[in-house]
Specification:
Blueprint: H1 4-13, H2 27-30, H3 38-44, H4 47-59, H5 65-81, E1 84-91, E2 99-104, E3 106-109, E4 112-115, H6 119-123, E5 124-125, E6 145-149, E7 156-160, E8 163-174, H7 183-201, E9 211-217, E10 219-225, H8 226-230, H9 233-238, H10 263-278, E11 283-288, E12 294-299, E13 302-303, H11 304-324, E14 327-330, E15 346-352, H12 365-384, H13 386-392, E16 414-415, H14 418-429, E17 465-467, E18 472-474, H15 484-510, H16 515-529, H17 542-551, H18 559-562, H19 569-578, H20 583-636, H21 643-673, H22 678-689, H23 691-706, H24 717-722
Parallel strand pairs: 1-8, 16-17
Antiparallel strand pairs: 1-2, 3-4, 5-6, 6-8, 7-8, 9-13, 9-15, 10-12, 10-14, 11-12, 15-18, 17-18
Bound molecules: adenosine-5'-diphosphate and magnesium ion.
Adenosine-5'-diphosphate binds near residues 214, 301 and 471.
Amino acid sequence: MKSLRTIALKEAQNRISPEVKSPSAKISDFFGANVFDKRKMRDFLSKDVYEKLISSINQGELINTDDANQIATAMKAWAMSAGATHYTHWFQPLTGTTAEKHDSFFEPSGDGAIEKFAGSALVQQEPDASSFPNGGIRNTFEARGYTAWDPSSPAFIMESKAGKTLCIPTVFVSYTGEALDYKAPLLKALAALDKAAVDVCQYFDKSITKVNASLGIEQEYFLVDESLFNARPDLLLTGRTLFGHMSAKGQQLEDHYFGSIPERVFSYMVDFENEALKLGIPLKTRHNEVAPSQFECAPIYEEINLAIDHNQLLMDLMEKVARRHHFRVLLHEKPYAGINGSGKHNNWSLITDTGKNLLAPGKTPKNNLMFLAFFVNTIKAVSEHADLLRASIASVSNDHRLGANEAPPAIISIFLGSQLNDVLDEIEHSRISKKIKEDNALWLGIPKIPQILLDNTDRNRTSPFAFTGNKFELRAVGSSANSSAPMTILNAIMAEQLVKFKTEVDKLIKKGDKKDIALLTVIKKYIKESKAIRFEGNGYSQEWEDEALARGLSNIKTTPKALDAYLSDKSAELFNSTGIYSKREIHARHEIMLENFYKKLQIEARVMGEVANTAIIPAAIAYQNALITNVKGLKEIGIDSKVSIDIVKKVSEHLEIVKSNIDAMLEERKLTNKIEDTREKAIAYDEKVKTYFEVIRYHADKLEQIVDDSVWPLPKFRELLFMK
Ligand code: ADP
Ligand code: MG
């Protein structure tokens, strides 16, 4: 019988890309075609309701039942004119993917049937969602969970060959009001940030009434041929390879990065980009990444809630479209040991309703004081809550990247670039003059900040949180993550920090300080207090780990321990003051994250055992048998050769170790599964079960190097990485 690998290799060699037709040569012709955007709202709604909807989008004002009915009718009319038959509330439960449950517009009525979509169905739904992770908030007997419309993210139509569905972005909450998803806490954090940031803006510019966080998400991913993927149970079930010797050629020649895009991949990229563009996702950039078969795409940044919805939608599209091209997209943080993993850089800034980016240095000294206020408060916020930010990017898959000398370390630090670093040092050591000289470059002792920062191009790629000219880039987020998790935290800590800042400044003003003196005094104090978190050197080096330890920065390498930060007193105060999580919610979430962690390890351990027992060991034994026949035959004809005997011995040694460790791991799992406490269980899975992976893999990979290639059952790294 031919092995799955042999068949897969043949199929992978003969791929023909499907034809990709762009809707138009001009992207602007079809950008947003499947979105119920403002222009379509205006066409389908009365002027009065349109304006109410816009103010709900911008100011979060509530929409009454009559207006909701009109909006629902308009949405239905638009969606049906585009061919949609069904609608769904589209939400982001804590599984990490998106969820949808479709209902048709169609309803039997009297002697016929009509298509209906009421305002109540738009505003709220009660999906039977008792099987989503809820951390004990919802027992199945009181299984009610509600989805509620988020007007700030526009409805869109998902197309598939079989039909079209109107999707309405929603939050997902329990009957008792607790958030069960990623979106609800994010929206709360954004509201807190908006208020706190506007209050601080008032020191500088009274015309500012709204501050939005904006986000541009760079998405890294791997592509692998579908048949090869299907012949690897580990990829199929866990998203990463649990076995596999490194290919002789990997990324060492650095010939893939920014190289010309292979034709088959290019065709896939254009295809999913077209789908994304129709859904209003403003994709702008595509390129090869560092590792072979690794790629990246990035959109133009957007308001953060929309940017995250779009990223979630994009990941979904990328997976769907990949199938049309007989590819599988790997969004896992570390699909292949030994070569770079994938991240999701989160580029974040704050933008006012007057169009000002608060993290962009200004032309005038006054604008620079405003910039410095937001800039230094960001640094201070991150320095106060570094552990929580670390926790927010923790996952079983991201553990492979953080601290593995290829991605930002598990130590949170901030890179500013030499110019701004100098500026902060200068302020720290300056004496604040009480005599203000307007329009002086050294007004108030603020050093001159060049508008275009040189460091904009001179990036430090080893920093988890880097300032890049007019935004911060959180580089430690994993490629498969929902960015809401870290962005909820980042915006919440910023909100809390800005509130504290204002309190301190106001106190000084009350005591008689001039406003600018008061601002600068507090900024200077924060610069001093947050100094330890600033680091300009190589974040991948051992020296940095040592220095960070001396500085008192945490370096928590694994998820179950990193997650403790969610339950600290400091975090409790933050969640309480910003209102993003109740005690019950955060405990539930903590529980869900731990469960997710150990369950994924449990699956990996099972797959490892199964693949070793049913594919690797039999292949090695078959090869051994062939060698034994060879040894016997040689003896018969009187040749005394040791080659085959040596190989038989080597194979036996590795087999022995693989088998005994698989068995020991199974025993360990049985013990671990009995642990009741979720945190302890997660730690045990990490420290007692996962530790077997390395030794099992090492010896299985040795076998791969010895056993006859034609009987090896699993597609090899060179095939997974270079066949496309
Ligand atoms: P790289 O980090 O790879 O050099 P770019 O400079 O192209 O990437 O930017 C990466 C992302 O940052 C893009 O999605 C871009 O739209 C986004 N970005 C640019 N300016 C801002 C900003 N002010 N706020 C948030 N994101 C931004
Ligand atoms: Mg980047």
